Structure formats: C-alpha cells, structure tokens
Amino acid sequence: MSISIYRAVSIGALGGVAAFLAEGPAAHYGAQLFPILIGWAGYYHFGGKIEGVKKALLHLLAGVVLAGVALALSTRLPYGETLGAPAWTAIAVAITLGVLVFASRLSALSDFAVAILGYATLFALAGVSDRGERIIALSQDNPIAVAVPLLAGVIFALLSDYLTEALQRYVPLRGQRPQSATSA
User: Fold this and answer.
1) Which residues contact 45 (CB under 8 A, 6 or more apart)?
2) What are the distances in angstroms from CA 148 to CA 33, 117, 122, 165?
3) Burial of residue 181 (number of CB atoms within 10 Å: 0-12, 13-18, 19+)
4) What is the CA 22 to chain-centroid distance, rounded?
5) What DSSP designation does 28 have?
6) Is the whole model's pTM more than 0.85, yes or no?
7) What is the C-alpha separation between 170 and 45, in angstroms, rounded?
8) Cα distance between residue 29 and residue 6, in whole Å
9) Under a CB-based contact definition with an 8 Å cutoff, are residues 71 and 131 in contact?
10) In this structure, what are the phi and psi dihedrals at residue 96, rounded to the nearest 5 degrees?
11) Which residue from 43, 110, 131, 139 has the least number of CB within 10 angstroms?
12) How far is the C-alpha of 120 from the C-alpha of 64, rounded, in Å?
C-alpha cells in the first residue's frame, strides 16, 4: 500500500507543476494540459521506465503523424469541393485509421489504442476551422506541435516514477525506517 501513497504524492505534485506550466508560462505558446496527461497515460500503459518512454512515444507519434496526414488530405486535396468537406474528411479519417490499426501488426506498433490517443489529440488540438492551413504552416499554432506536450507528458511520467522511488527510499511512512543513502 505504501507505493500507492508515494505514487499519489509524486503524480499529484508533478501534475500540479504540469498544470501550472501549461496554464502559465507555456500558455502563450498554445500549451494545454490534456495532451500532457495523454502522454503520461501512454507511458504508464506500457509499464513505465525507459521501455515505456520508447513505446509510448512511438505509438503516440504514429497516431499524430497519421492524423496529420488525414487533416492534410481532407483540406489540401480538391475532392472536398466535389464530395463535400464532411464526406472527404470521413474518407481521409477512415483510410488513415485503417492504416493505423493495420500497422499494429508490426510488433513496434502493436498497441493501436495508444496510437489512437495520439491521433485523437491532434484532431482535438486542430479544432474545426482552418485545420489544413494550421497543419501546413510552420508556426506555434501548428497542431503537429502536439508532439511536444505528448513528449512532455511522457517525461513528466518518467520523473514521477523517479520521484516515487526517491520518496519510497528516503521518506518513511509511519512505522518504517528511512533507507540511508549508502544502503541499497
């Protein structure tokens, strides 16, 4: 039970720091808390540690890239004029989601649910107006920059693991003895 107390403290504290950064200094750059939390969840979904970092980033970024392709296709190709924007967007999403799920046959992308979280995060940040323009533009408004908060979330999760371990080692709960810095 003690590990859950340490984990609650570390995730709560670092989650507060992430919220402050997203709502404070980084808000000017369009930062939002939810992609950070999605990156955090991806990390823990894959078991944490360095392996969790690698797998979470690979899956989340695969989803972001395919969502970017869907947005670019739905706004840059002229088929939207003929079929209508909703129909062409639906076709682009259907194709790219199909590719994403089919790619899960590869062992490196075996968990498509986490990739879909990256995909959905990009669509959520892209909003409904001027999606194609923002995807193609190289600016801070570009929703492809969603990779940055997803990465930040994975890093915050890794840091919360390290903080949990440090708390467990050096801050005893009632009835426990602290471990010395030299004992392992």
Assistant:
1) 52, 56, 111, 114
2) 12, 15, 11, 26
3) exposed
4) 14
5) G
6) no
7) 27
8) 32
9) yes
10) -70, -35
11) 139
12) 8
Residue listed under structure tokens 């709560």: 12
Number of neighbours of residue 54 by Cβ within 10 angstroms:
13
CA atoms in the 13 A half-sphere facing the CB of 45: 22
Q: For 140, which DSSP code?
A: T
User: At residue 14, what is the residue type?
Assistant: L
Residue recorded with tokens 């999403």: 93
Q: Please state, as a whole number, how many other Cβ atoms lie within 10 Å of the Cβ of residue 164.
A: 21
Nearest 10 degrees: CA dihedral of 143, 114, 102, 126? Answer: -20
pLDDT digits (tens, 9 = 90+) for 131-179: 555 655 655 556 567 788 899 999 999 999 999 999 988 888 776 666 6
Looking up tokens 């949990």 gives 164
Largest CA distance in the chain: 72
Structure tokens at 70: 């869907």
In whole angstroms, give the CA distance from residue 92 to residue 75.
10
Joined together, the tokens standing for residue 102 give 């089919």
Q: What is the pLDDT of residues 90-113, one digit of tens each?
A: 999 999 999 999 999 999 999 999
First to last CA, the chain: 21
